Amino acid sequence: MACLHTYSEVYGWELRRGVRLPISGGHISTDAFGRRTLAREGIVAPGRPRLVSLGDSVAFGLDVDDEATLAAQLQRLELGTGPGLAVFDLSVPGYGTDQELIKLEREGLALRPSIVLLNFCLANDLADNALPAFLYDGIHPKPYFRLEGGSLRLHDEHLRLAPPARTALWLSEHSVLFNALSPGRATRVLAARTNGEAPVHWETRYTEVMARPAPLLDLAVRLIEKMSQDARGVGARLVVVSHPTRRSYTDPTSPLETELHDRLARAGIPFVPLAGRYRARGLEFADLALDGMGHLGEGGQKVAAEAIRDILDETGRALSAS
User: Fold this and answer.
1) Of 1-5, 106-110, 150-154, 217-221, where does mean pLDDT reach its minimum?
2) Dihedral angle of Cα 152, 311, 296, 222, to the nearest 10 degrees
3) Which pLDDT value is given to residue 79?
C-alpha cells in the first residue's frame, strides 16, 4: 500500500502518479492524474458515453493487471442501448463513500460523465464512513462527514499534519532505506497525535462501529443522495452496485443491504446487489473472489463488468420508458 499511495491533505491518501508496480498477474499502473491506467484508444469518440467509476480496492482490482480490472473490462463491452463506454477509473484502495463523494466533486464531475458508477463494498464501507482514520491501521487520517441537523458536515481539520508527521509519512511512502532503518517510525509519529494511546486491532474497531448500524445507514444514504444530486447537476445519472462478502453472499436477505436498497429506491436511486446477479449465473463465491472480503480475481472482475453492463442497459431502458 505504501508504494501505491501518497499522503493527501484532501483525501487522506491518494494514488501516486506515474507508478508501475509489478504484481503476480501483471502490473498496477497509474497515469499522470493518479488514476488506474486503462487503454484509451478511441474512448472519447463522439457518441461514446462517459462513465466515472468510484470505489475501493474491490473495484480497483489490487490483484489483477491493468487490463483485467472491472473498469478496463467494462470499457471493452458494448452496451445494448448504444455504443460502448469511455470509462474513467477513480477508485482508490481503502476509500469509503465519504472520500468517494469528495473524489467525485473534485475530479469526477469535471470529466462530464453520463453515468456515475458507485461500487459499494459491503465488507467495510459502512464502517469506513464513520471513522476519522483508515479502518485497517487506525492511524492514517481521512476526511469524514457527520449528519448535523439533517445536513452533511465535512470534518477534515485533522488532515493538516504537523511537519514531523508529514515528513515521516512521506519517507515511509517513498524511501526503502527509511523503512529499512526505521521500521514503523511513521506509524509511531502519527500515533503520537492520538495522545499515545495504543491502537486497537482493526476487527475491534470494526465491531465497535458496526454495533450501531442505524446511524451508519443514515450517513451512507445521505452521502449517496448527495452523489446523485451532484450527478444530476451535470446531466448524469448515478447507479450504485454492492459487492458482496463471503458472508453476505450466502444470505440473499442481508438486512443491511436490504435496508440500503429500500431507502435508496425510495429516493429514486438504482441500487443493485451484484450477489443476486452472480447467483443467477449459478456461480459460487469462490468462483469470483480471492478472499472473504470479496476482492475479485480476473474472472470475477469480468463477471462483475458483464453484470454492471446489464444493469446499465436495464437502467437506461427504464429511464427511456419513464
Assistant:
1) 1-5
2) 10
3) 78
112: left (phi over 0), alpha (psi -120 to 50) or beta: left
Sign of CA dihedral 233, 239, 243, 244: positive
- Most confident range (mean pLDDT) of 33-47, 141-155, 173-187 is 141-155
Cell numbers standing for residue 222: 445521505
**Long-range Cβ pairs for the range 249-254 (8 Å, 24+):** 249/275, 249/278, 249/279, 249/285, 249/294, 250/285, 252/276, 252/279, 254/122
* C-beta of residue 315 within 8 angstroms of C-beta of residue 254: no
d(C-alpha 122, C-alpha 247), whole Å: 10
Going by C-beta distance under 8 Å and a sequence separation of 6 or more, which residues neighbour residue 4? 15, 16, 19, 21, 28, 30, 93
CB 295 within 8 A of CB 67: no
pLDDT in tens, 141-174: 999 999 999 899 999 999 988 777 776 666 666 5
Q: Where are the alpha helices (DSSP H) in the chain?
A: 57-60, 70-76, 97-103, 125-130, 163-174, 176-181, 185-191, 202-210, 213-233, 246-249, 255-266, 274-280, 298-321
C-alpha cell recorded at residue 157: 481539520
Name the grid cell of 270.
438504482
For residues 115 and 48, what is the distance between their CA atoms, to the nearest angstrom?
11
Rg (CA), the chain: 19
DSSP 3-state helix, strand, coil percentages of the chain (rounded to 5)? 45, 20, 35
Please tell me the pTM assigned to this model.
Answer: 0.90
pLDDT (tens digit per residue) in 285-297: 999 999 999 999 9
